[in-house]
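Quick one from the shared queue. A colleague (R.T.) flagged Phage membrane protein as missing a structural entry in our internal table.

Convert sequence to structure tokens.
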Amino acid sequence: MVKKRRKIKYMDLLQLVLLVVPAVKLAKKMIKEGHRK
């Protein structure tokens, strides 16, 4: 059960990274646009 829990946590972490990476890219794009203005 412990191994299964760890695997689930790892998958959740991977999913979180996949969600955070595009958000960070979008934030950087917005910051660049903000500097242009």
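The helical segments are 2-36.
The two ends are 54 Å apart (CA to CA).
Added to the table.
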